[in-house]
Model the fold of this input.
Amino acid sequence: MKKSILCSTILLLFFCQLGIAQLAPEEDVVENKLGFETETEKYLPFDGILFGVHGARETMVEIGYFHYQWGNAGYGDGGKGYSISTEHYINDNYVIAPKIAGFSNLWGIHLGAATVWYFDTEKNNSFRVRPEIGYGSKKIKLAYAFNMAITNKDMPNVSKHMISAVYFLNFNKKSGK
Done:
């Protein structure tokens, strides 16, 4: 009789302990120096307006919206993002080009790609894909780009090669810390 009570008590204590072990203790939330609460929120969001100047044979200005995630990827500072903008050519024949771009930076090396559709006042248009490489940081991008024509390869006033400088004007106050 004593053995069965002892065994029952040991089993009851074992199951109680097993149930208690399943409960997670309260974790203290510790803010890191970037102001984030968990390790999964290690990227800073940047949102704002971008201003750019591009050129080769022709000069062009760019204005648009960008979204950027910047932080420490575990192996160095880097980021990724996208932009929606328009390019405006300043030459004899006005050219406007809506543009959608995606980009990634790691250790200052910028890699990106964009799709651009050029329209001019003489009813010419050309759809192009533009890969680019260069230097990139939270605030600026300096890159070389190659315009690969998909349609209308001979559109006048559109360069195949260009150098670009883009400035990112951030409006997100949390990422400004």
